Amino acid sequence: MSTMSGVELCARVAATRPDIPVILVTGVGSMDSAVAAMRAGAYDFLAKPVNVNALGLTLKRAAENHRLREEVKVLRAAVPDQSVEGMIGESAPVKCVRDLIERVASSDVSVLVEGETGTGKELVARAVHRASTRKAGPFVAINCAAVPVNLLESELFGHARGAFTDAKNAREGLFVQASGGTLFLDEIGEMPLEMQAKLLRALQERTVRPVGGNVEIPFDTRIVTATHRDLESECKAQRFREDLYYRINVVKVPVPPLRDRGNDIMLLATWFLKRACQRSGREEIGLSPQVAGLLLSYEWPGNVRELENCMERAVALARLSHVSAEDLPEKIRTFSPNRVVLSAETEEEILSLEELERRYILRALKILNGNRSRAATLLGMDRRTLYRRLETYHTSQIPPAKEPRLSS
What kind and span of H or E run contains 348? Predict the structure, then answer.
């Protein structure tokens, strides 16, 4: 390389092909050279003689970083055509849900939507309504767990004038209000047994009697229900009426948890990110490859709702043109997919060697008050190796450096 240095070549490649990760290998293994390489756009810096295992690991990480960058580009281009009212996702479980919706929408049978909290059960119910012949009619929703027991009957069936204190006027219930459309009963598993019996009668007779009234009122409403509980188990435990279960469970639509939806996580994250930017009047920002990796490895116990909240938080905190790891909640930043619990009582666990090394390095730095030089010496590695390790960790986990000062 007589015409230019390795750093100059790296800068040239980074300028013309920023999509290609560059690993600079040099015989000048100084800290200044490493800084110059990073400023020139290098993905990583290795000093000669090169350790084959370290080179292999660096290449693997560079390839993964490149893959995630390309994936983010594709997803950002695909998301604008998606609708928030539609079901965003291309995974096999979501395609199965879409297929069920299309097949059941044209009939008037009752649909039971099952899924964990935050998976989007109401979104499925609305999709059933929009795809049905009743789409011109109203879509009326109620959360059975959010209404006090003594008011739930009045909400569903209505009440006559003077039926109870403050009932100055007669009022139609939701069954009648939803006539010609769809009534969505969310969290039906929380409904008291006494109310379940009244609901069963209404579904069988297709009429309701308002509280305090004497006249049966017919309704023409499709019923869609949802629950996060296993209603079959609830029936066996006698907490849910078996006859009502079979009445509402003509067709069951299971909604998959977010952790089983693979790449849909990135599609949804990109969509929520774009929407949050629009709502806050901020210029659109993207996701860094590191953040993409964290989102894909996290288990998402709160499912789609948790992901949406996470992206709204990221937009509020982000200072750069992309979301960084520091903008994510700590439980996502520190989540370890390699943790395996052997005993629920003792919380014994097996860790990968990489995770074990990470914890040991961070513990050594904490004990040594962030002194990198002493930590590298005690850990048996040179400072460059330690710094490369620390670059892969989240900065919030690394104790601040307190290097000894040289006297002048």
Answer: none
Rounded to the nearest angstrom, the gap between the alpha carbon of residue 47 and the centroid of all alpha carbons in its chain is 40
Structure tokens at 79: 């998301």
Handedness of CA 373, 376, 380, 381 (dihedral sign): negative
Q: Tokens in use for 247?
A: 């009445």
Lookup: tokens for 315? 């937009």
| pLDDT value of position 346 | 44
Q: Which residues contact residue 11 at a Cβ distance below 8 angstroms, ignoring those fewer than 6 apart?
A: 40, 41
Q: Output helix, strand, coil percentages for the chain, rounded to the nearest 5.
A: 50, 10, 40
The CA distance from 34 to 44, in Å, is 8
Assign 3-class secondary structure to 34-66: HHHHHHCCCCEEEECCCCHHHHHHHHHHHHHHH
Tokens at 184, concatenated: 């969505």
Mean pLDDT, residues 309-338: 88
Q: Would you say 389 and 376 are in contact if contact means Cβ atoms under 8 Å apart?
A: no
Q: If 0-12 CB within 10 Å is exposed, 13-18 middle and 19+ buried, where does residue 10 land? A: buried
Q: What number of other Cβ atoms are within 10 A of residue 324's Cβ?
A: 17
- DSSP of 251-272: EEEEPPPGGGSTTHHHHHHHHH
- At residue 406, the pLDDT reads 46
Torsion of CA 49, 52, 53, 56, to 10 degrees: 120
Q: What is the mean pLDDT of residues 8-24?
A: 81
CB 226 within 8 A of CB 122: yes
d(CA 151, CA 180) in angstroms, rounded, equals: 24
With beta carbons less than 8 A apart as the criterion, state whether 75 and 267 touch.
yes
Q: CA 5, CA 162: separation in Å to the nearest integer?
A: 91
359: tokens are 């914890």
Rounded mean pLDDT of 351-366?
Answer: 76
* Among candidate residues 290, 300, 275, 297, the one with its CA nearest the CA of residue 320: 290
Structure tokens at 243: 């006859």
Model confidence at 189: pLDDT above 80: yes
The DSSP call for residue 401 is P
83 and 255 in contact (C-beta within 8 Å)? no
Helices of type H across 41-148: 52-78, 92-105, 121-131
Quick one: average pLDDT of 53-67? 82
- Say how far apart CA 21 and CA 15 lie, in whole Å: 12
248: closest CA among 95, 56, 110?
Answer: 110
